[in-house]
């Protein structure tokens, strides 16, 4: 069983390089300053999200960013798996499912009504893993976004 | 120009029937108790969202529920149009676009990075209206949800 630990501001130097690797892999347009500014409020105790380190704190093998919102449909506070990343070398061993199930238990205990995530329609491996851990595609709906900044 | 007003707990008796009409129209499974419990924390000042009444406070023609979250990708606080409803009789006059643009200005002033919404892929009228007000479909991605309660 791989442990997950709630991250604190002291963990930033170990999370930021993992996040840079994730963004490079995903093609997300974000530089180091963007990542620092987006991550620190969550480590500093924002009520809008929290971060978990996967594996040993001194040498993490990945991280999960959980963000919180509210949903009339689900009837209360809900959550997003905003980012989840595992180092390439530790993939394919079921760690991703293990982490998502642990996060699900944590959120259920905190009375969160539902947890969502966005997945690339072409990423069939990820979709299968998410389905195995209880996620269902909201296939009827599409997500639309308007950037404001 | 149709005004939008931030709703307070005193507006609940006028918002709840509109919300019931919206849920009936959408086929959302929610009863009056569910709606009351999901709405009141937002009217009571939760940091996770707020509600706006469309039109006169004593006889609203609709409402918008905005919820807040956080996004590493967008680099800060983001928002969802969780629900937007206009009475059937006032539709087709461009009021929906007007309301979304007003909400967008409000969110941009509040330094919100991006605003999202979910739309039924078959609802081409809504998609066209959202595109006109600056929303773009995140077509590459699907939303997956796991209920926890």
Structural class of chain A: alpha+beta
Tell the overall outline of chain A.
Answer: globular
Poorly predicted parts of chain A? none
CATH class of chain A: Alpha Beta
Main beta sheet of chain A: 5 strands, mixed
The oligomeric state of the chains shown is: homodimer
Full CATH superfamily name of chain A:
Gcn5-related N-acetyltransferase (GNAT)
DSSP E strands of chain A, number: 7
Helices of chain A, by number, come to 4
**Binned strand content of chain A:** 25-35%
When the domains of chain A are counted, the total is 1
Q: What fraction, in percent, of the residue positions of chain A are helical? A: 25-40%
Main sheet: strand order of chain A: 1-2-3-4-5
Mean pLDDT across all amino acids of chain A? 96
Q: Which chains make the largest contact?
A: A-B, 64 and 64 residues
CATH fold naming of chain A: Aminopeptidase
Query: Which H/E pattern describes the elements of chain A?
Result: EHHEEEHEHEE
Quick overview:
2 copies of one chain form a homodimer. With 149 residues, chain A is α+β, with helices and mostly antiparallel strands.
Note down, in words, how this protein is organized:
2 copies of one chain form a homodimer. Helix content of chain A is 34%, strand content 31%. The first copy, chain A, is an alpha+beta fold and 149 residues long. The first copy, chain A, has one domain (4-132): Aminopeptidase (3-Layer(aba) Sandwich), CATH 3.40.630. In chain A, strands 1-2-3-4-5 form a 5-stranded mixed β-sheet, sandwiched between helices. In chain A, helix 1 crosses helix 2 (32-43). The longest helix of chain A has 15 residues, at 12-26. Chain A is globular and about 40 Å long. The relative contact order of chain A is 0.13. The interface between A and B is large, with 64 and 64 residues. Strand 7 (141-147) of chain A pairs antiparallel with strand 6 of chain B.
């Amino acid at each position: 069983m791989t442990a997950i630990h709630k991250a604190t501001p002291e963990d930033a130097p170990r999370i930021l390089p993992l996040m840079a690797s994730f963004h490079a892999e995903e093609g997300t347009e974000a530089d180091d300053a963007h990542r620092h500014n987006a991550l620190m409020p969550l480590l500093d105790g924002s009520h809008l999200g929290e971060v978990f380190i996967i594996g040993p704190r001194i040498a993490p093998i990945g991280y999960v960013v959980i963000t919180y919102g509210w949903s009339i449909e689900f009837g209360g506070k809900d959550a997003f798996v905003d980012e989840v990343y595992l180092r390439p070398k530790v993939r394919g061993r079921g760690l991703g499912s293990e982490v998502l199930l642990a996060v699900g238990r944590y959120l259920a205990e905190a009375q969160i009504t539902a947890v969502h995530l966005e997945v690339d329609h072409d990423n069939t491996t990820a979709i299968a893993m998410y389905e195995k851990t209880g996620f269902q595609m909201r296939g009827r709906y599409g997500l639309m976004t308007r950037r404001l900044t």
